[in-house]
Amino acid sequence: MKLNLLALLPFAAAAAQVARAAATPIRRDDWPHGPFYTSGNQIKNANNESVIFVGTNWPGSGESMIPEGIEWRSIADIVSMMKYVGYNFVRHTYAIQMIDQIYENSGTDITVQSALLYALGEENGTKTMEMINKNNPQITNSTTRLEVLSMIAEEEAKQGILMHLDNHISRAIWCCSHDDGNAWFDDMDFNISNWHRGHRYMANWAKNHTNIVSMSLRNELRKSAVKQNLEYNWKTWWGNVSAAAENIHATNPDLLITISGLDYDIDLSALTTQANLLTAPYVNTDMDYPADASSLPEEYAKIEETSFGKAKKAVLEIHAYKQSTYYEDHLEDCDAIQAGLYRFGFNALGESARPEGCTNSTNFSDPYACPPAKLTLPTLLTEFGDAQDAGFANVTMQKCLRDFTTKNKIGWAHWSLAGSYRIRQGLMFNNDTWGLTTPTWDAFQSPETVDDYFRPWIRDMGTTNLEL
Ligand SMILES: *[C@@H]1O[C@H](CO)[C@@H](O)[C@H](O)[C@H]1NC(C)=O
Ligand SMILES: *[C@@H]1O[C@H](CO)[C@@H](O)[C@H](O)[C@H]1NC(C)=O
Ligand SMILES: *[C@@H]1O[C@H](CO)[C@@H](O)[C@H](O)[C@H]1NC(C)=O
Ligand SMILES: *[C@@H]1O[C@H](CO)[C@@H](O)[C@H](O)[C@H]1NC(C)=O
Ligand SMILES: *[C@@H]1O[C@H](CO)[C@@H](O)[C@H](O)[C@H]1NC(C)=O
Ligand SMILES: *[C@@H]1O[C@H](CO)[C@@H](O)[C@H](O)[C@H]1NC(C)=O
Ligand SMILES: *[C@@H]1O[C@H](CO)[C@@H](O)[C@H](O)[C@H]1NC(C)=O
Ligand SMILES: *[C@@H]1O[C@H](CO)[C@@H](O)[C@H](O)[C@H]1NC(C)=O
Ligand SMILES: *[C@@H]1O[C@H](CO)[C@@H](O)[C@H](O)[C@H]1NC(C)=O
Ligand SMILES: *[C@@H]1O[C@H](CO)[C@@H](O)[C@H](O)[C@H]1NC(C)=O
User: Fold this and answer.
1) I need a surface site. Which of 73, 86, 264, 331 has the fewest CB within 10 A?
2) The whole model's pTM is what?
3) Measured from the CA of 389, which atom of ligand 9 is nearest?
């Protein structure tokens, strides 16, 4: 079954292309018609057409800082698998450490080979390099990490897929926890000026790839357990987030910039409701509210006054997992899940996205409260997921996310592509049941989930305006 599916892949893709060619004129010339911009709750291309992202995450911020899986399959085969699902968007995670090393190495990126030796040791590093070279002969001992990312960007462009650059972490390790030293600005490994430098480097690098139209600021901000004295709150969040977005925008004004929220990117409510940053409610209980907050002058996240906001480049992004704060208490209650999504940030899409199960409560702690936003912005669901097995389609939270994104044409990216990691949490060849692929990347881990869940979902999302 699995093998048959993949063997059929090129023919199915070719047939689909022919079918499309008959229906609509092919505008391959300037695909993807960038730069993109925002208009109300929509992302639009340069032809003023609304674009909808549907995709997955491709991890590349582990210890070796090389996208996972290329020791098992060719880049073209991996991208073809994603194309088969129907994805048009891939969120690529990278670590700031990669750029720090480039600066330490006088401006030159280090090779895949030395990155592997460093991360995996001599024996496994050499073995993995040989496997990469066998499956991807264009990657040799002298190829650098960013050259590999360029190869992937080019292959994705060839197959009609956008590359989104996601700064996942500073130090390259499995993400994310309160005690990993990468949780919050100024955390042990979260150097703010290196972070800005890394953003500038990647924003410049993106200029060479027309299928990169967007970039994130930081994955899953959260309170640090390592440095307890950092002020973890809405005020320092907005101060750091707005400065970083201005920095990227000044470097590459074409890019959309995705803004993530607090508590592992669950909550953006203080921004969307334009609440006083010193006193605004928050999904969890670990916020360091400023002392005497209610007696201080009010402060607001005035996104419409920023350069990137005025240029219509701001997009919001939110995550939702069964282990996330709030959702963990409402796993079987779709009304509460959708009300939470709305309350914590998707209200930026406007009243039209207000779930049916909402009450008129204005109490932020009420699971069914759906306070309205005071601004309108596109908002994406850039991480969600669960075990890739036959039960995926039956998980209430997954069904609920599918329903909400389909109804409101919300762009999404599933976590994740990787059925295994070359190293993760100290374990070599670390397999992930949540991955779309098998551990050896030769097939889908759950073909029924791909065929009976993801593909119909993507069809239901409607026209994405990203077809080649
Ligand atoms: C897109 O919209 C802008 C503003 O309304 C307009 O100036 C421009 O000509 C439009 N572009 C296309 C390709 O329709
Ligand atoms: C090499 O990887 C294997 C698993 O593939 C692991 O068992 C072994 O400990 C690793 N060797 C070293 C030296 O880390
Ligand atoms: C790549 O490096 C390894 C380890 O140093 C070496 O054994 C191998 O011959 C090199 N390959 C080429 C093509 O130079
Ligand atoms: C951040 O890193 C830079 C070097 O890039 C260093 O000069 C600076 O002191 C570091 N900042 C902190 C707070 O450690
Ligand atoms: C863009 O590509 C050109 C040609 O390959 C290369 O010389 C240049 O360094 C690249 N620019 C960036 C920012 O990577
Ligand atoms: C960034 O965050 C740190 C840690 O909370 C804080 O000290 C600093 O003031 C913030 N920067 C801005 C510009 O708000
Ligand atoms: C919520 O408010 C609207 C408008 O004020 C009203 O029509 C509706 O009946 C209220 N719903 C509930 C459940 O109270
Ligand atoms: C808000 O709702 C929570 C949870 O339902 C409740 O404990 C709290 O008392 C309510 N607050 C107000 C002001 O009604
Ligand atoms: C999923 O739910 C349907 C309908 O309740 C049921 O028929 C099916 O057996 C379930 N599948 C799995 C794998 O749990
Ligand atoms: C990962 O899966 C592969 C293939 O199924 C297996 O050979 C390997 O031992 C697994 N790795 C671990 C750490 O269990």
Assistant:
1) 331
2) 0.94
3) 13
The 8-class DSSP code of residue 451 comes to I
- What are the tens digits of pLDDT across the range 150-179? 999 999 999 999 999 999 999 999 999 999
Task: Tell me which residue has its CA closest to atom 8 in ligand 2.
Answer: 428
H-assigned helices in 353-421: 396-408
Q: Which atom of ligand 7 is nearest to the CA of 359?
A: 13
CA 403 to ligand 7 centroid distance, Å? 23
State the angle between helix axes of 334-343 and 396-408 in degrees (0 to 180), rounded to the nearest 10: 50
Question: Domains (ranges, CATH) in the chain?
Answer: 12-22+36-461 (3.20.20.80)
Specify whether the CB–CB gap between 409 and 44 falls below 8 A.
no
What pLDDT, on a 0 to 100 scale, did the predictor assign at position 28?
53
Atom index in ligand 5 nearest the CA of residue 204 equals: 13
Pairing of strands 256-260, 37-39: unpaired
Give the pLDDT score at 19: 39
The confidence band for 23, taking pLDDT boundaries of 50, 70 and 90, is very low
**Residue having the nearest C-alpha atom to atom 9 of ligand 5:** 205
Residue nearest to atom 6 of ligand 8 (CA): 365
CA 48 – ligand 1 centroid, Å: 6
Residue whose entry in the numeric block shows the structure tokens 């030769």: 442
The CA 252 to ligand 5 mean position distance, Å, reads 15
Ligand number with the minimum distance to the CA of 281: 8
d(CA 111, CA 72): 19
